[in-house]
Amino acid sequence: TAPDSPGPSRAFPAGFAWGTATAAYQVEGAVAEDGRTPSIWDTFSHTPGRVVDGDTGDVADDHYHRFREDIAIMKGLGLTSYRFSVAWPRITPQVTAEASGPVNAAGLAFYSTLVDELLAAGIEPAVTLYHWDLPQALEDAGGWANRATAERFGEYAEVVAAALGDRVRTFITLNEPWCSAYLGYASGVHAPGRTEPAAALAAVHHLNLAHGLGAAAVRRAAPTARVALTLNLAWVRTEGRRSSDLDAVRRVDGLQNRVFLDPVLRGHYPADVLADTASVTDWSFVLPGDLDLVHQPLDALGVNYYSPTVVRGWDGRGPRAEADGHGASEHSPWIAATAHVEFPELPGPRTDMGWSIDARGLRELLLRLHTEHPGLELVVTENGAAYPDVVVDGRVHDEQRIDYLRDHLAAVLDAVDAGAPVTGYYLWSFLDNFEWGYGFSKRFGIVHVDYATQQRTPKDSAAFYAGVVAANALPPRPAAGQAR
Ligand code: FCB
């Protein structure tokens, strides 16, 4: 075949789950309705200077009221699954560090109806229990640095699983605890905006503990459901050959990947991470028996992937680069590593987030997990790209997003062909939405949202994705100049 020939289309495994993903605070709005109380993201977004343009999730995509319209769009695209998150402050709005308090029936009813409507549309719900909207009252008592938060999470997980577990097959305990711990408590670019490295490492452990307690709670309340955890793992590499470059890879791999993977999947913390961080904390918040609680059977691991991570050993001379795409802060999320590691600017294409594009990372991550944890089912629970999309004559021509998706779906297929048991793909995101510290300035959706009118406009990428889903296959790349 000629080098630029399109080639055949490539099929995904039978029964592959095709979805999009969202998170409660990013899309729902209705922050004061039906008994919901504030989360750390309400507080943070209403604090001047924290979010671009002072944006908040007060209204967001108004998905709380428009979910039927949104489900109809998903159905029209032929999607087979929808990953959404439950807002903890809707379920136990009076929670304190001491007790979960009464369950809010109206809050549960919203998600119960959402599940029913999805099932009626032939779309399987996949429920994330924690996508960053911690009840503010728990933060006031120390947040994730406080062990009680993990205990209350276990109780909340049991409530949700008991209410929805007859209809929901997959519960994901946490989304990206790396972000909750390090961006929330070390660099402070995410809620609650604290910059306390020791608290961030306590948060790492308490999030791992919350996963374990939540997993056990889901098993009790919904014995037939699948339990998963979603991590944003890093494909870490270096272009250097010095031992300091390799040490930089080890440190970042430890802080981003192994500090979550090892306790959850192997029942211990990586010794090198404990040693690297010894000057920050003695890890005495890990109590006897905790690792048995963290190390629960897992039915699937969710992998979120956007961008590669390239590091270099740093010798302390000259200005240190930290182009890791995790938001501007004088405080680094890379606890105890900043004296040894830098993150150089990468050449090549980037998304509107400034994130480098390299689909090889998705394949490599899936293959690494397959090699290190054989038999563990893998699901891509987020992947996608932000671009500055505009509606012209009722259309959004987002070719760059289509290219991004095509390359990353090909990477998933490469991993599948090499034997990795990947069973689904969830595109981030269904709708343009509140992109945390970036507010509404970054658009990740395959459906455009006009925030003034709440008008939804499917982008060209939505049609591309619908084609992939319908065929359960990746079509050949069109020849240059040919219309998609
Ligand atoms: C992930 C988050 C998700 C979204 C994407 C762009 O880290 O899980 O909510 O913000 O990034």
Write the layout of secondary structure elements.
Blueprint lengths: L9 E2 L5 E5 L2 H4 L12 H6 L17 H15 L3 E5 L2 H4 L13 H16 L3 E7 L5 H5 L6 H18 L5 E6 L1 H9 L11 H25 L4 E6 L4 E3 L4 H24 L4 H6 L13 H5 L5 E5 L4 E5 L27 E2 L17 H13 L5 E5 L16 H19 L4 E7 L18 E4 L4 E4 L1 H12 L1 E2 L10
Parallel strand pairs: 2-3, 2-12, 3-4, 4-5, 5-6, 6-8, 7-9, 8-11, 11-12
Antiparallel strand pairs: 1-15, 9-10, 13-14
Bound molecules: beta-D-fucopyranose (FCB).
Description of the structure:
By secondary structure, the chain is α/β, with parallel strands linked by helices. The protein has a single domain (18-234, 262-301, 350-466), classed as TIM Barrel (Alpha-Beta Barrel), CATH 3.20.20. 37% of the residues lie in helices and 14% in strands. The chain has 15 helices and 15 strands. The chain has helices at residues 24-27, 40-45, 63-77, 88-91, 105-120, 136-140, 147-164, 177-185, 197-221, 243-266, 271-276, 290-294, 360-372, 399-417, 460-471; strands at 10-11, 17-21, 81-85, 124-130, 170-175, 226-231, 236-238, 300-304, 309-313, 341-342, 378-382, 422-428, 447-450, 455-458, 473-474. An eight-stranded parallel β-barrel has the order 2-3-4-5-6-8-11-12, surrounded by five helices. A three-stranded mixed beta sheet has the order 7-9-10. A two-stranded antiparallel ribbon has the order 1-15. Strand 11, helix 14 and strand 12 (422-428) form a beta-alpha-beta unit. Helix 7 (147-164) packs parallel to helix 9, helix 13 runs parallel beside helix 14 (399-417) and helix 14 (399-417) packs parallel to helix 15. The longest helix has 25 residues, at 197-221. It is globular, with a radius of gyration of 21 Å. The two termini are 21 Å apart. 55% of the residues are buried. The model has no long low-confidence stretch (mean pLDDT 97). Beta-D-fucopyranose binds at residues 23, 26, 175-176, 179, 232, 304, 382, 428, 435-436, 444.
